[in-house]
Amino acid sequence: MFSRRGSEIAVHQVSCIVHRTVVGPDGVQVWEALDSGEWAVLRLFVEKVEDGESIVRLMSHVDGSTEVGLDELLRLEGQWWVKDDDWVEFYKYSSMFAGGEGDTIYGLAFANKEQCSATTGKILSCVAGTAAGSRDSSRPVSSRPISINPAMARPESSRKINQAPLDEGASNRSLQSQKSISRMPSYKTRPPPPPDSTPPRHKCDSVSLVPPVPPATPPAPVPTAHTPQPSQGLVRRGGDGEGVGGKVRVSSFRRPSGTIESSVSRTLTDSDGGSSSHSLVSGKLSRKLSLASFTSVENMIMAATDVDGGGMEIEDAMEAEMKKIEEGTETEAERISRMSLNTGREGSKGKEGDGGGGGGEGGVGGGDIEEEEGGEEEREVKNEGEPLTGSQQQSENGISLPTNVTKGIHVVYNEERAHYEGLPDGAEWKIMNKQFGIPIGAVPKTTVKGYEERIPAVLEMMKKYLIEHEGIDVVGIFRLAPDKDDCLWAKQQINEGEFNGCSDVNIVANLIKVFFRELPVSLLDMFEDKDICKIADMEPGKVVLDEVEKVCGGGKKGNLALIYWLLDLMSTVVMNEKVNRMSAKNMAIVMSPNLYSISSENPMAALTMSQKVADFTTVVLKSRLGVKWGYGD
Amino acid sequence: MPASATPRKKYDHLVKLLLIGDSGVGKSCLLLRFADDSFTAAYITTIGIDFKIKNTVVDGKKIKLQVWDTAGQERFRTITTAYYRGAMGILLVYDVSEEDSFANVTNWMSQIDENAGEGVKRVLVANKCDVPADERVISEEQGRGLAEQYGIPYFETSAKNNFNVEESFMQVTRDVLKDMVKEKGEGEKEGLKLGPEGGGGDGGCC
């Protein structure tokens, strides 16, 4: 269970697969992994839950690649929570994932639909960005953009539905239904019992599974579908899995309630061909997946994201979709029957199972195979019957929605030392401690007294270190360069969360500069050149600070709190200038080049501008010194 | 390209020198001493880049020395490295009482390799050799050894006490001139070598 104490952080792990969706003549949608079968792992670090707000840090990582994406911190008006039941009453808008522990449901709750939708999209784009970056662009499938926003990816008909307003009753029903859906197949959970009867194919309650295909049944035209290919990226299994899975297809999906059938079908009719991937598809059958579990989760999320009351329109939408499908948007995927979805994670995740998050790890760990194998027959099954052949088309690339959620570990963010504690070993976890070179928004923060916004914890940590080690008594602090190698080493230590002090306070002072220097968007970049020049020529005083606040939108934008934090750090140094010889001007000169991106390529122009920025910083620093600290020349 | 010996010029050669090194090692003070024969104990940081002119005579030739003083601040490097290209000689300065500034000489050397012209003349300057012995952390042997590794001249200087400042600047100037004369000879033959004034017009100077 997620604890709300302090900076304890629950880390939830979500797996997504980079896939494309293909739709067959019978309306069956199948997802298949892209060529290399990337799996993306998304980790959600739920940093803070307070006052009805959560701060979630996303880390996405494509398995087998070294790329790790760190997204901005998401500030959610809702909450990330883990609950077994009774959540329905509390949360109208939510994204949720089938849990890794029995019936536990993990979810994100939001204050409104827009946020819910946007956040889900952001989660996905986080994964998509990483996945896209890691894929070989020469592959045909990669050349197409990955659709990440389910709302955008859906056909017009269902989109329309999704935009219908939500009414209370519908929401409740939807959540109820989601709840039941959420207990649908996932990696970890046992498959639900088979339904009483096989529903019509486009109105099935869940994923449709074709039972194991008897040899006589014309299966996928490409027999390699049954061939174990353990070496391939996606299908990381011992080689036995291919034959186990039944013919799994994802059909049009409908939630049990019948009224809030929003997102249902991801039946993506192909608008732009995709024939380029045709041969690829047939050659990669063994890697193809039809992601029953994904779809159930996806639908669940989409249902949640786009909750609406447009149930009556569903039928129409379905009809339209079916019609489209029947008109010939058949896809290669129809032939895809082998599915090894649940075993795909094998081996790659074992090391993450040590976090103590209950049984969650198992969901992505060794439990997969047996569960899939064991559960296969029990799954809700819908026999689509007809063999899949004919002209088939790829439908759409995409990133699957999160699934396979596990609460893998529990870590603590130590704000004092600006690092996570309790992270498992492994480079993809280490990256969580990266502090330099990422946007201010993505840097973990800490509350510092006297500032309205939270301040990057690493800065506060370095400031404390500097002061505790009498850095402000060092002549030329912030001016003198430390040994470059020592500095790089210390920086790396911080980035990996292993900083335990260093030999020279100049290193820490320099790293504070480096932090600002390496920000993707510099601290003062919302000041235009003309603002800089204007303020640079002003007399120090409160009016200067007013002007700064004005540019910063009164603190609403532009990191005003961080600007003040930095000015106060500089002030602390300057007020000791008799010892350290760092006058306000000196301090401003050495700090200012790190705070503003000078656009000019022309060295002369750049020099002129950098002098202006130095003047600007001097004026602002003197103003802060006078106004807040009562310190004058 | 104007010929270097054009009579209307007040000088025979224009030599562009560059001072580089860590922040606070005394580059500006060395220049102040060299160009104005003065010294200030004030702790002044250079913004970006600055320059001074000094006219001198070497081997009977009138030389106009244009010395660029760069900020040691790392962030200024995008600006300062732009000036490397025009430099004919570079004085790489470190502070004998600052170990890091010596350790970073290697990095400055690679900055030179990356940004300066190929034939640029270099000299290693160990400044602040006036500090009391107990404050000195880099010995003459260390400095000289490093200079030998790079095959460049080494000078111990004190801008404060006016020790060896002139000598270090003149050494690199002579090295530049030596090449100039040589290149001029070749240039006349081949007609393509850049004369000493080649870079003289683009510095934005007087």
Chart the SSEs and their pairings.
The complex is a heterodimer of chains A (633) and B (206).
Chain A: E1 8-23, E2 29-33, E3 39-50, E4 53-62, E5 68-70, E6 74-76, E7 80-83, E8 93-98, E9 105-110, H1 113-134, H2 150-153, H3 156-162, H4 168-182, E10 208-210, E11 247-249, H5 278-283, H6 292-305, H7 311-326, H8 367-375, E12 393-399, E13 403-414, E14 419-421, H9 427-430, E15 445-446, E16 455-456, H10 457-468, H11 484-495, H12 505-517, H13 529-536, H14 542-551, H15 560-574, H16 577-580, H17 584-591, H18 603-627
Antiparallel strand pairs in A: 1-2, 1-3, 1-12, 1-13, 3-4, 4-5, 4-6, 7-9, 8-9, 10-11, 13-14, 15-16
Helix pairs in contact in A: 1-6, 4-6, 10-12, 11-12, 13-18, 14-18, 15-18, 17-18
Chain B: E1 13-21, H1 27-36, E2 49-58, E3 61-70, H2 77-80, E4 89-95, H3 99-103, H4 105-115, E5 121-127, H5 140-150, E6 154-156, H6 165-190
Explain this structure to me?
- The complex is a heterodimer of chains A (about 625) and B (about 210).
- In chain A, helix 4 (about 170-180) runs antiparallel to helix 6, helix 10 runs antiparallel to helix 12 and helix 17 crosses helix 18 (about 605-625).
- Chain A starts with 7 loop residues before the first strand and ends in a 6-residue tail after the last helix.
- Chain A has 18 helices and 16 strands.
- The model of chain A is unreliable at about 1-5, about 15-20, about 30-40, about 60-75, about 75-110, about 125-320 and about 325-405 (pLDDT under 50).
- Chain A is α+β, with helices and mostly antiparallel strands and about 625 residues long.
- In chain B, strand 2 (about 50-60) and strand 3 form a beta hairpin.
- In chain B, about 45% of the residues are buried.
- Chain B has 6 helices and 6 strands.
- With about 210 residues, chain B is α/β, with parallel strands linked by helices.
- Residues about 1-5 and about 185-205 of chain B have low confidence and may be disordered.
- A 6-stranded mixed β-sheet of chain B has the order 2-3-1-4-5-6, sandwiched between helices.
- Classes of the chains: A alpha+beta (about 625), B alpha/beta (about 210).
- The interface of A and B includes residues 476, 504 and 611 of A.
